[in-house]
Write a structure and sequence with these properties.
heterodimer, A: alpha+beta, Ribosomal Protein S5, domain 2, four-stranded mixed sheet, 2 helices, about 40% helix, B: alpha/beta, Aminopeptidase, Rossmann fold, seven-stranded mixed sheet, five-stranded parallel sheet, 12 helices, globular, cytoplasm (chain A), lyase activity (chain A), CitD (chain A), phosphoprotein (chain A), Citrate lyase acyl carrier protein (chain A)
Chain lengths: ~90, ~325
């Protein structure tokens, strides 16, 4: 899947996350979270897994998280990816 | 649901809610949104460029997620317009509630605080990582609208006193000469100084975010608060990154705003280990050289006296076809 345009998904509510995607030549992922210290690595692993599953090889991925659970991270990121891939 | 506030009644309710929260309704803004419950406005917020402002929630609706929803929409729409980081000024007591929304504290004084969402500062610094030298280094922040002999003197003197001099050219497009032209005049005018590195300030020094009154040149009392945050941001984030231990500035006999910025520099920066050196302005014809004076000559179409005020590099730009188009749009002087 290709990040073809600039999109955003998610909200700033507690237990949710904001996902920002935009086209770029290389893949960069930055994660900001209110629970980064405790769960940063788990969030990162989840994000990487979803990106791999959708064969995302390039783009700028920025996430700000407020303690979202795994399936929320997956759902928000997938929504953003689908939007970014639409022509 | 968050909606745009457009009608006269919407605006009246927004004003009331903002006033009741101890803030004031302050145009301009690019976006103004709110949340209604049973016909009454319960939350409001606005975005002016990168700055979120006038965020207020009715007392009976606090503690829920209305503020989160307002900020979500302001940030989401701003992102679509090409912005990737957002600022908010708030009172120190509100810092924690914005940190919970992933805003990061850039600077705080006893009276106000500046936070950013989106880590633009981190990305700005990272972009310049390869320009960092061990130091000790110096810094000048200047608009150079246009680059004068006074700027040249300040840069030369400062560069001689430090390992490397970082010259931050104000990024903001609120001046007669565009950033690209100002940057070009500075580059050409300092090309012979090997230890001078040019940078742009982005939003993080003397910008419409950190120091809006610089561009207004009025005696706005709110300006003093913001000037303090501008300098704290420099002292806490920019200077340590570039190993800057000295800041150089020209004395300011003419503009009250800039003079009080200089005074604030002497007050704030030394506390953070940054020595401030103020150099006496250079004179030409018994009056200090300033970019304002150059612009006044340009406005009169008087290019004869320019040579005493600007270096040759600037002069040849000003008299070029491209330069003339900036200050003499009708081409009368050509």
């Amino acid at each position: 899947m290709k990040i073809a345009r600039k999109v955003q998904a998610g909200t700033m509510q507690s237990s949710d996350l904001m996902v920002f995607l935009e086209p770029a030549e290389t893949l960069t992922v930055t994660i900001d979270s209110t629970v980064l210290k405790q769960f940063g690595e788990l969030i990162r692993a989840k994000v990487d897994e979803v990106l791999r599953r959708h064969h995302v090889e390039s783009g700028e991925v920025r996430i700000t998280d407020r303690g979202a659970l795994d399936y929320a991270i997956e759902a928000r990121l997938e929504t953003a990816l689908f939007r970014a891939a639409e022509e | 649901m968050v909606t745009s506030l457009l009608s006269t009644d919407d605006l009246r309710q927004a004003c009331d809610l903002i006033d009741a929260s101890g803030l004031s309704f302050e145009p301009p803004f690019d976006d103004l949104v709110g949340i209604f419950q049973a016909g009454r406005l319960q939350a409001v917020g606005a975005r002016d460029g990168r700055v979120l402002k006038m965020l207020a929630v009715a007392p009976e609706a606090q503690g829920g997620s209305l503020l989160d929803d307002i900020v979500t929409v302001l940030v989401g729409r701003g992102y679509q317009e090409g912005l990737d980081s957002f600022f908010i000024f708030t009172s120190p007591s509100q810092v924690a509630s914005f940190q919970a929304l992933n805003f990061h504290l850039l600077a705080a004084s006893s009276k106000s605080a500046l936070l950013e969402y989106g880590d633009g500062l981190g990305r700005y610094l990272n972009r310049h990582r390869q320009l960092v030298t061990p130091g000790p280094n110096g810094a000048i922040v200047a608009n150079c609208n246009p680059f004068t002999r006074g700027h040249r003197y300040l840069v030369e003197e400062a560069a001689a006193q430090v390992e490397r001099l970082y010259l931050f050219v104000v990024r903001e497009e609120r001046s007669l000469f565009s950033f690209d032209y100002r940057h070009r005049m500075v580059r050409e005018g300092t090309a012979d100084l090997p230890n001078v590195t040019l940078l742009d300030t982005s939003s993080y020094a003397v910008s419409s975010v950190t120091f809006p009154t610089y561009f207004l040149k009025t005696g706005d009392p709110g300006g003093a608060l913001q000037m303090e945050l501008d300098l704290l941001l420099f002292a806490k984030h920019i200077a340590p990154f570039f190993h800057i231990t000295r800041r150089f500035v020209g004395s300011e006999p003419l503009s009250a705003t800039t003079a009080s910025y200089n005074a604030a520099m002497h007050r704030i920066l030394p506390e953070h280990g940054i020595e401030v050196t103020e150099l006496e302005r250079m004179d030409a014809g018994n009056a200090p050289i300033s970019a304002t004076r150059v612009r006044a000559l340009l406005a009169e179409g008087d290019s004869r006296q320019l040579a005493s005020l600007v270096p040759e590099t600037t002069l040849s730009f000003l008299l070029s076809r491209e330069g003339r188009r900036v200050w003499d749009p009708k081409g009368e002087a050509a």
